[in-house]
Amino acid sequence: MKTFIASVILTGLISTSLAQSTSFTTFREKFIGEEDVHHFSINGFFTRMILRIATEDEFNKAVKEVKNIRLVTVPKAAFEKQKVTVDGFKHELSKDAFEELAHAKEQGKNITLYIQSTLKHDNRYMVLIDEPYVVTLVEFRGKVDPDVLLKNGPLSFNKPQ
């Protein structure tokens, strides 16, 4: 029985680690000890409930079957301290098979949506929000209908190949 329980726990840990993108994990680990760096993640039913409560109907129509959301906020001062740049991170995203899907500039913020297509039913998405003093990275798994997003927002759009 102990072997069975240990196997279940090990399988859970392995599947959890495989479910995370290398880019997000690298980004979080790079800044985790810095001042004013914040991180959280939510999964499953709680994720879907928060999205329904906090977002508009049009957004809920576009974002379907979200499995989990992870978020990190990092002050620009931490980038300077670590001697790294947002452009450098964008390069890491491309090495991790993320493609730019959409981009918007609004009120001093550069918002870029990336997609990492998988062979499974859902994809992995990364939203990079580059503000004057803070960078926010959001990762989630699920399905997004880009046509619905385009109808409802100021996005420029790049279709994945």
Automatic annotation (TrEMBL):
Keywords for this protein: Signal
Span of the signal peptide: 1-19
InterPro entries: DUF4252
Pfam families: DUF4252
Protein name, UniProt field: DUF4252 domain-containing protein
